[in-house]
Amino acid sequence: MAKQTVLGVCGLCGVRKTKGAMLNHLKRCLPSSAKGGSMLPLALLRVEGAYAPDFWLDVAAPSNSHLADLDDLLRKVWLECCGHMSEFYVGRYNAIGMEAKISHVFGSASTRIGYIYDWGSSTELTIRSAGFTEGTTKTTKRPIVAARNEPPLLPCDICSLPASSLCSDCQDTGESFFCPSHESGHSCGEERLLPVVNSPRMGVCGYTG
Ligand SMILES: [Zn+2]
Ligand SMILES: [Zn+2]
Ligand SMILES: [Zn+2]
Ligand SMILES: [Zn+2]
Questions:
Q1: Ion ligand 2 — residues with CB under 5 Å?
Q2: Which of 38, 79, 96, 127 has its CA 20 to 30 A from that of 52?
Q3: Is 1 contained in some domain?
Q4: pLDDT tens for each residue of 95-114
Q5: Does residue 3 carry a pLDDT above 70?
Q6: How many domains does the chain have?
């Protein structure tokens, strides 16, 4: 897969930034886009695919929200296919309870934890604290996605036009991404294909976005 610079979009003001510049932008953008409502401290979290870091989310989470709220958000935006188990952990899978408060878990800057969705065909994420800022309760009573990567352009392995689906059974064969006109000819059958989606769970289990 050709290396490309994947930009992200700020969900508050729409500006496009590199992955490296987005967090600093959000530290200014979150407080300044507050219009009415009372201000509350927000933890800024960088979430990315542990093995697919081109998929990333910058989450603004109220300090008094809980890991369970973050779990809800990650499932909704990126992961949920059929209600698998999930867990936050530190080190070698030492679980952190879902009831843990964001402010406790990410109290010190540069805290890094792991997250796993589905212990079978797992999708693993890393979540790192990028410090605190503030925002208004009007936008964020619960964790929100403040910014995320733009969908990467993945080429069809046969003709290089943009791919719309992939075959998870063929991911190591070099012929697993297909454009609409090459989907039907795939030997595994069209019903085996999953849509190309903007998520590190693309092509896993029955994930369709
Ligand atoms: Zn912004
Ligand atoms: Zn599933
Ligand atoms: Zn094609
Ligand atoms: Zn296949």
A1: 81-82, 205
A2: 96
A3: no
A4: 999 999 999 999 877 799 99
A5: no
A6: 2
